[in-house]
Amino acid sequence: MEERDGRAGGFRKETVDRLLRLHFRDGRTRVNGDAQLLMAEMLKVFVREAAARAARQARAEDLEKVDVEHVEKVLPQLLLDF
């Protein structure tokens, strides 16, 4: 987990911070840099796993192109796994 050019795990730090703040009840809650890096890494793993599962779903349907419907089909189990 390292930070490059204001990005952590491939996501901009501002994006990670905003996603975290969506669920905070107290607006004064702060997130330190290590927590942002960890969350960015979790997001990276989640997105990669979603893409891999969607690709497997498309392949199972004998299609070469992954579409939104494939992501929608694998999303419930993906959310349970995370």
Describe the 3D structure.
With 82 residues, the protein is mainly α. It is built from 3 helices and 3 strands; from the N terminus they run E-E-E-H-H-H. Strands 1-2-3 form a 3-stranded antiparallel beta sheet. Helix 1 crosses helix 2 and helix 2 crosses helix 3. The longest helix has 28 residues. It is elongated, with a radius of gyration of 16 Å.
Record the SSE blueprint.
Blueprint: E1 3-4, E2 7-8, E3 11-12, H1 13-21, H2 33-60, H3 68-81
Antiparallel strand pairs: 1-2, 2-3
Rg calc: 16 Å
Which strand order do you get reading across the main beta sheet?
A: 1-2-3
Strand content: 5-15%
Cα separation of the termini: 19 Å
Uncertain segments are none
**Major sheet size, sense and barrel closure:** 3 strands, antiparallel
Order of helices and strands: EEEHHH
Summarize the structure.
With 82 residues, the protein is mainly alpha-helical. Helices cover 62% and strands 7% of the residues.
Label this structure with key terms.
82 residues; three-stranded antiparallel sheet; elongated
